[in-house]
Design a protein that fits this description.
Radius of gyration: 20 Å
Bound molecules: alpha-D-glucopyranuronic acid
Shape: globular
Number of strands: 11
Order of helices and strands: EEHEEEEHEHEHEHHEHEH
Strand content: 15-25%
Distance between the termini: 49 Å
Structural class: alpha/beta
Largest sheet: 9 strands, mixed
Strand order of the largest sheet: 3-4-5-7-6-8-9-10-11
Helix content: 10-25%
Amino acid sequence: MAITSIMAADKVKEKFNEDESKVPAYTLPDPLVFPSGKKVDTAEKWTTQRRPELLKIFEEEVYGRTPATRLEGIRAVVTEGPADALDGRATRKQVTIYFTSKDDGPRLDLLIYSPKNKKGAAAFLGYNFIGNQATIADPAVKLAHGWTQNREKQGMTNNRANEESRGTESTRWCIDQIIDRGYAIATACYGDVDPDFDDGFQNGVEPLFYKPGQTKPGPDEWGSIGAWAWGLSRALDYMETDDDIDAKRVAVLGHSRLGKTALWAGAQDERFAMVISNNSGCGGAALSKRWFGETVNRINNHFPHWFCDNFNKYNNNEAAMPVDSHELVALIAPRPVYIASAENDKWADPYGEYLSAVHADPVYRLLGTNGLGVDPVSDKVPALNSPLLSGQIGYHYRSGDHDVLPYDWEQFLAFADRHLKK
Ligand code: GCU
């Protein structure tokens, strides 16, 4: 099946391409060339000139600018714990980050497990889709207080968490293994920061930043991905105050739309020591100009709240994009980044995700790292289930579906062992 029409339920009918031979000719912007045509030939030029220039384009044309204002009244309160968990192998804490001085305003519930009797552990931080209670079968974990994705199998049909959902996404989190390997893990429901539907930006954190009279973000101001990324930085602010965690060794990660979010959070906030993107696809690690799987037009029409309004300029017009995802990955350099793809996840364009790593490699090398860790770097996608773990950029292409599997975690942990262990 070469060209497939997308599901009938989709608002926008469009053909999408999943045939490599139908990928159009495209030209990628060179991250190491200034608009003037001059080469970016030193690490200093990258860091002080080119990186800020690229970051600004992503801010103004793709995800929208994140407000720099510090919210008055923002505060973190440990609402449960520290308590023993995982048969005494871990310490559990639940922390609420209130975004305003009001207790019933927008707030983020962060669930943290850290290895018992260990101070300053390296940590993973990532959002979940349906509430902290789903990431582990631990009855002490609070149910999500706000909007969650639905899971019909668990009777979640009204965008609210329920008891039945406890532990149902635990294979996506592997908290036992994470703790046994000596890492802490922090997670929160992304809906706490901004419910994931198009309501004209009335709920979630965006209105907290509106200027008098403003009712929605401007064309170059953030959408939901930007808001979610901001929330990850606020979680990191808290982690900086928690002795059980070494906030200088935090890997931010996410799956799918939350993988896009993790990349954008890591690109903007250089305090994140590592970034992991799992099956992040269009608007994440996959190159948009390849026009393979999900397209810019489709994502903007189907999820009009994710990116900034300016991104619509590139609907069916990817060739005009001044940046592509290899430059998003390059913004993370020289920090370690891991990109994970899955064979059956054609929608997310696994090869396009790999090519982002390939074309970010020269930036990583300019900054004195070994990039993808292989010489020469091949533009052929690595063999199935043969992770590239030796570079500053890690990658794997595993068999199976769009998901986070224990296999993925094995690689994330191995990559973290190389880069985050003291
Ligand atoms: C949809 C969307 C993707 C996204 C995915 C997810 O498939 O088109 O861009 O990554 O949802 O977040 O699950």
